[in-house]
């Protein structure tokens, strides 16, 4: 038993090394960066900070509490969670997060990143060993450089992309088996899983699959016939479509959600433009080149400086198939062109220009580069010293050129990059010479190669990857917010929303702390809602909208019943203290409407916000149209040019400010000349409303900025607000019960009216009046509406993501087809299903002229049998990659008929 285990370990040692090496290296880098538990920092970079950690927390909460995975109220006033899951959370590995405490979500994600990096190293190592039929330990080094490449250094925090990085080598292996061996299921399953886990990166994978399929067909070395090529092409089309069908359950709902987002508003580039030279791109493959995350389109393609030696050697190696060599070089050129030109860049990114994070397909380029480099190493004994020397001089020449063009003045990159890269190139070249000429034992050369590669790879990742932030700061309010929000939930079972007025960390704090909110920042953000927030003076952008700028009016309309704050707020008849814990306080907004209320049909169809208005004026217009009450906000004072002004109100009330000058991004508000002041930032793009709070006529408010603000101060008339509330609440939707996807209640109307719901419009919502489904429509391209006749009616809302059922049907159908193919192949192999001589069967029983002509044209028995066997193989070829099935002996099965066929030919 022990020897058997050792044998298994030895036979898979390459895979063990490929997985363990990146694991140890990344753990060591976590340690040096003082990432928890070795310090107080965490790996929480960019969107991982603002989006992924909160969304993971929301997924944990839903799974642990048995809530619906189709809709969430903790994101942006309500969102299609299926689509958000498809874009951010679809990796099957994410379900394991429920095994750990929610508070350690950051550490769970950090651990998943390390494991997925190790998994990507293992995946390409597996590809190399199967493609080249070797388990040489050197393959693990190429796995390490893939798993810790420049792409990973730049984007490893994009945890939802890493599954596709792992699956890419497996997909390409499956594609090669489809072309070379007619084995298709492995390709279909891996591509389907890739599409399922992240549709966006899968677009790039699918484009590369098409390109590689063409190259494989051109370089195919098997039996050459038109039927063979036709069969492979048909297999490719059918199994690619089935792979898409496997992911349809998420794809179709996601496509609909994106049609509502700002991402759908794109146009094809009018002119072809170049970003930079191909030569400048090649510098991105040097060690310690800073990763690029901005808008300048630079690719992150580092995968070891040995590529400058190995790619020329790959080209010079005569043992490598010439057609394959030319084809793969063309692939690299296609990728470099796509990095460099705007139209290919637009196409590769799903007909959309990426908003920063450029060249997201660069990991595919790295895959092809590394496999070509390994083939050069695999055939290193076939290469002469002269060829190795030529490759070395090419590398040194490029380094000198890079240094002169891009590093001489230090404006682009440091000159040290060229020298450090040169040292490693010389070391690799020396090891090649030693391997081919010296009489040293191979283990010593291998050990030196591993040592140099590990040092290089670790230096690059340490220099360019793993940006950290303070874990202590991120979790500072975690327990306190959880406590106060739980207190509210335990005592209020009505439907309500809450948001953070001060101290919000991200626009997804609702998902992080699991409370219903109006804010969101995600790629699935509803564009209509963002535009509505802009009209109303609230914080908004292309893919986000938030609570900054909320007023008592918008709190009332959007059912924001509670406000979370990390500072004490003045109380009034509109807002009162509710609870607090450890510096986090909750205030109750006393006048908030239910999730639905009636408005006049004229308000629904004819009211138009004015683009020239600021948010306060548009809120006045909205309330006037809905209730007939005008001037809920009144002007207190105006300061057109001042950068420092003092406001002295004439009465008590809630004060709001508008800084109309779009160049002003930051202002400071000080009350009563005290040392305590409040700063408001990010005003430039949002024209955001500034909530000063409740003040009295004895207070003074000083406002300062760097330049003239064109400031207007408004006071909320609380009496008018209460009147407006009473009018709208009198004919509001009384909710009896609700879940994430279902509301039941009633409404009483004095006349035919439109019921407006504070729910972002989504075709997945169905509304039933007295049990009968009625048509829904959208208000201001943002909120859900329905027309309801006069009288008292039961009102029910149900949610099923648009296209989810159709997508699930397509996925189930695809699974059934794949299972059917697999089972049929097994039954045929075992002789349980009789196989027909299909060409003759069709000719004899269907009597098709086309088949007759084919049969006659193959009057020679041997050729005819070849055609017969070829078509049968189309049906019976190996479909399961996990079993090494043999095709049945068709010649024996059809011997009786072949005899008849011969006799017929003799008669003719």
Task: Provide an overview of this structure.
Among the domains are: 2-22 and 116-464, no CATH class; 834-907, no CATH class. By secondary structure, the protein is an alpha+beta fold. It starts with a helix and ends with a helix. It has 34 helices and 28 strands. The longest helix has 27 residues, at 105-131. The strands form eight sheets. A five-stranded antiparallel β-sheet has the order 21-22-28-24-25, with no helix packed on it. Strands 5-9-11-10 form a four-stranded mixed β-sheet. A hairpin with a 2-residue loop joins strand 7 and strand 8. Helix 8 (162-181) runs parallel beside helix 10, helix 9 (185-197) runs antiparallel to helix 10 (199-218) and helix 9 packs parallel to helix 11 (226-246).
Average pLDDT rating? 88
Nearest-angstrom radius of gyration?
33 Å
Low-confidence stretches: 1-6, 838-868, 874-908
Termini separation comes to 67 Å
How is the main sheet built? 5 strands, antiparallel
Shape: globular
Query: Which band does the percent of strand residues land in?
Result: 5-15%
- State the total count of DSSP E strands: 28
Helix content: 40-55%
* Global structural class: alpha+beta
Number of helices: 34
Task: Give the strand line-up of the largest sheet.
Answer: 21-22-28-24-25
